[in-house]
TrEMBL record, chains A, B:
Lineage: Bacteria, Bacillati, Actinomycetota, Actinomycetes, Micrococcales
Organism: Microbacterium lemovicicum
GN (gene name): exuR
Entry keyword Transcription: yes
Single Gene Ontology MF annotation: transcription cis-regulatory region binding
Matching SUPFAM superfamilies: lambda repressor-like DNA-binding domains (SSF47413), Periplasmic binding protein-like I (SSF53822)
Protein name: Putative HTH-type transcriptional repressor ExuR
Length: 333, 333
């Protein structure tokens, strides 16, 4: 393109670096000057070359977000706040989906010229955090963490919410309690299972092995596991689900098996995604500030890029119990 | 980084341009050479600079997808196939959300160094297509088109599905039929309304003005509109919804108002998103190949970038009627 930042600088009466700063919305440039530069750029039809900008700053102002499955409703509820927060602080979001091979994911992230990556799919044995650390590509854990590489993280503290839920369940007469947990190699499934078992122990209860299932955090997995649990001679009267998306599957399985929720079986989710409050769902669940947590991960990422030596931050989000239609008095069997 | 493509070229025994082509997976390079280059790159720990690549080719291999709201389930069902298709043909997806000001959106898209943009939020009066055309940034319409700028497009042909739905509704005794349509300035709302009215006319029926509502394609809008319709002295016995996401809102409103679906009121959606088939929802709806349509838009975008003079393609997706629980015999009132 013929028009360069020099032309814009001349017309606006500022230096060339000021032009780039103004167009980046750098706070060091006054609003007045920004307007002058923008007007000059529009008048001349100037479009900054992002590639040129990246070469001169060594930064692309692009941040990756690694998710497993873009169709999964859990992820669609974090993509929006991460995107909006990053846009507000001058970064662009690049979505990446995980393949089976973690090593390849790390290489792809590194090759894509990102300034940093928010990891939302980490397993305790993921290779990606190691590879990213070795290549000095900054990253932040969202929700799930790996065991052996420390980094900035935003995580959920499940104990309070689950403890309140169990107390209420016991009041309602539930004794035979089942669970459809997330994958064993995720920190979220581990911490929720621990918190659930601790809460049950407070009331002298246990998760009996025959009532526990584990699988991916998706609707199909919740459906399959619940179908199995409800086919048992003595099904649990209450099923704790690894998250809401799994709980939707549990509700579907119950409906298909002819079990009325909550008369015949109660279901409790985790996350309080928007559909949990819908009148046609009314899912009892564990709530926390998911949007806030996603926004915080975006902010931590930007801070890490801009201040590489900032102290590590682990931000925990507290949980609370939200009682809705899907939890009621234990079915007598 | 110390390692350059020259080092990789030397170790692999090829020219520097061959290194870039091999790492871009260019079909002109043999699989053998590609492997040799990749091995050399891995051995040396070489990571190509994307910014350098963009400067030398004039392309960024990034394609934008413009959506209104990342939380809207309709969009989460198109982001995944667009992402996957683009990744398969060597492009990266950049998400962009629309703000109130279309002019700004176009400027942002242009400034972001994209090779092209898939527009999923177009209104018939959008300014963005004009601006993009003036700046020669290639774009493809997904689902919605603008009236006055032609471009490659993938769209839905609603007539067959809606005609089948209306025929079945009439068989079931529905005569007073309402509709919660999308925004009047979208080509999708216009074509669905035309198709619905034409199908009703075949049976000597009309959409009476008092039973028609219009609003955004979201759950809140479907909920509010249906709440109004059901509060009328003579509510419609069947409500056609602009899409499934709107229909979820209609189901919520009916539940809240104490109307049993389908005993007291029937609801029909449009899109057949995955939850429509869930046992706890079982939404009667209009289906088409949404994933295929999203993938096709991605392919059309890549083709337009690579062959700017290719003839314009308008790909229409046929619809069919899917009958589930939410449609039943008309309530007698």
């Amino acid at each position: 393109m013929a028009v360069t930042s020099r032309d814009v600088a001349r017309l606006a009466g500022v230096s060339q670096p000021t032009v780039s700063r103004a167009l980046r919305d750098d706070p060091r440039v006054s609003e007045d000057t920004k307007k002058r530069v923008r007007d000059a750029a529009v008048l001349l039809g100037y479009v900054p070359s992002e590639a040129g900008r990246a070469l001169s700053s060594g930064r692309t102002r692009r941040i990756g977000l690694l998710v497993t499955d873009l169709k999964n409703q859990f992820y669609s509820n974090i993509i929006a706040p991460v995107h909006d927060e990053l846009e507000g602080i001058g970064y662009q979001l690049m979505l990446h989906t995980e393949t089976a091979d973690n090593e390849t994911v790390a290489e792809r992230l590194i090759a894509n010229g990102l300034d940093g990556v928010i990891l939302a799919t980490t397993t305790v044995d993921s290779v990606a955090p190691l590879r990213l650390r070795d290549r000095s590509l900054p990253f932040v854990y969202f929700n799930r963490t790996a065991a052996y590489v420390d980094a900035d993280a935003t995580v959920v503290a499940p104990s309070r919410g689950l403890s309140e839920a169990v107390t209420r369940a016991v009041e309602l007469g539930h004794r035979r309690i089942g669970a459809v947990l997330g994958p064993s190699n995720t920190s979220t499934a581990q911490s929720r299972e621990l918190a659930l078992r601790a809460a049950l122990a407070e009331h002298g209860l246990v998760l009996e092995p025959d009532t526990v299932r584990r699988g991916p955090y998706d609707t199909a997995s919740g459906d399959a596991a619940t179908t199995e649990l409800l086919a048992m001679p003595a099904p649990p009267t209450l099923i704790f689900c690894g998250n809401d998306v799994v709980a939707y599957g549990a509700l579907n399985a119950a409906r298909r098996a002819g079990f009325d929720v909550p008369r015949d079986v109660s279901v409790v989710g985790f996350d309080d995604l928007p559909p949990a409050a819908w009148p046609i769902i009314e899912l009892t669940t564990i709530a926390y500030d998911l949007s806030g947590m996603a926004r915080e991960a975006a902010r931590l990422m930007a801070r890490r890029i801009e201040e590489p030596d900032a102290p590590l931050a682990h931000v925990e989000y507290e949980t609370s119990f939200v009682e809705r239609r899907t939890l009621a008095a234990a079915a007598s069997r």
